[in-house]
Specification:
Layout: E1 11-12, E2 16-18, E3 21-23, E4 30-35, E5 40-46, H1 50-69, H2 72-87, H3 90-100, H4 105-127, E6 134-136, E7 139-145, E8 148-152, H5 160-172, E9 175-179, H6 185-198, E10 205-207, H7 212-221, E11 227-231, H8 234-245, E12 250-254, E13 260-263, H9 269-281, E14 293-297, H10 301-312, H11 333-348, E15 352-355, E16 372-375, H12 382-385, E17 392-398, H13 401-409, E18 417-420, H14 424-433, E19 440-441, E20 459-460, H15 465-470, E21 473-479
Parallel strand pairs: 1-5, 8-9, 8-11, 9-10, 11-12, 13-14, 13-18, 14-17, 16-17, 18-19
Antiparallel strand pairs: 2-3, 4-5, 6-7, 7-21, 12-20, 15-16
Helix pairs in contact: 1-7, 2-4, 2-5, 2-6, 3-4, 3-6, 4-5, 9-10
Nicotinamide-adenine-dinucleotide (NAD) binds next to helix 7 and helix 8.
Amino acid sequence: MDLAAAPPARLVRRHLHVAGEWVDPADGESIPVENPATGEIVGQVPAGTPADVGRAVAAARAAFPGWAATAPAERADHLDRLHAALAARADEIARTVALELGTPLKLAARVQAGLPLAVLRGMVDLAARPPAEETVGNSLVVREPVGVVGAITPWNYPLHQVVAKVAPALAAGCTVVLKPSELTPLTAYLLFDAVAEAGLPAGVVNLVPGTGPVVGEALAAHPDVDLVSFTGSTVTGRRIAHLAADRIARVALELGGKSANLILADADLPSAVRVGVGNALLNSGQTCTAWTRMLVHRDRYAEALDLVAAAVAGYRPGDPFDPATRLGPLVSAAQAERVQGHIARAVADRARLIAGGPDAPLPTRGHFVAPTVFADVHPDSALAQEEVFGPVLAVIPFDDTDQAVAIANNSRYGLAGAVWSADEEQALAVARRLRTGQVDVNGGAFNPLAPFGGYRQSGLGRELGAHGIAEFTELKAIQR
Ligand code: NAD
């Protein structure tokens, strides 16, 4: 890919994708799409309405019996063609995410395009396997697709979070109505270009763009949606759970996090800090699994702070389409303002600023925030407890492993975490004590087939891999 090439031109999409066709929305309203690196409007999508949701859910309902009865190998063939059609668009996906979200293009190619392709590839193989059945005494226990899925996704990984729902739902035999984030809807359109090209049966997957309060609520509240799969903020997840509870519909929720990176005294400090800072700043810190609390043994604390400051200096905010850029803007003015508010509060709380901060230099336009590090952060302070969702790292010293585990678990979230130690057995023992859905030991790589999800207010249920498919099924016991 030519990384220095100009960003794509203005993108205007006028249709919904319903029952296998590009169709006109019920209403003529539209939503502008902004380039957060410049503040310019670069595209537009329809603002869907509850009537559009009704039409899409009806299409998904009509398609459900046929898709549920389709043999797993045939469903896998459909997903395989979808993978090929999406892979052919990998460059366009990376550019579109760089444009509407601001992820640096090189990172967008690797993560924003590469990761969902890897997830979909894995799903093709899993979808081909007939669902496992088991015999329990005189019962045959089988799994069946739950039905119509309403998928509501955020802006920070705009294709990955969609594929993480659509692919396993389709693999399980469910049909889907997707509402992508109104901040990054153009990437979702590329998926539906691929859906149309792959020739998926009409109605198995449908697209209704729009705002959360209008299209999101209509989807979450629709009586014919059997499961609402949501990724986003904990506040919205709670609202969706309430809407679904009114009709006892199932929900799967992937929510926020405040993950801890535990660096024990015997760790390879340069690696732990380099990877830890990279993780915290990934996608400008707009990553639900970001290790936003770095916990360092007091014996190595001063050394670690020097390494952190040096590592952060390598992340200068800049143009996402410049190949040298490692840190893009935040997604919107509102998000940048929220993050600056967290920084101001940490300063007021007397956390020690060691990099970035409110006065650091920034590009003259766009929604940029300087990569910012606070040291000596109190584990109970707002900065250690609230999800910032920006390029802000809190460093906290600890005296022994028990204290480190207690600080890590002192959170209403429980999504991810990390442990670094020269003694892998010790690191694994600590990983088991963390109350989170995933833990990386000594930089263990992300595994797209492993279950993904959170404890406590980080969510309900799991995505990805075989566990992700099981999330979209019901269990039935047949006695004989
Ligand atoms: P958000 O909750 O504002 O929006 C997410 C989606 O929900 C969007 O499509 C939005 O339009 C929709 N929505 C908003 N209000 C709604 C309502 N009342 N009813 C139905 N739908 C509604 O979140 P965001 O700002 O887009 O994303 C950032 C948040 O998401 C962060 O808190 C982050 O931690 C979390 N997140 C979690 C994960 C995860 O896997 N756990 C992944 C990404 C993001």
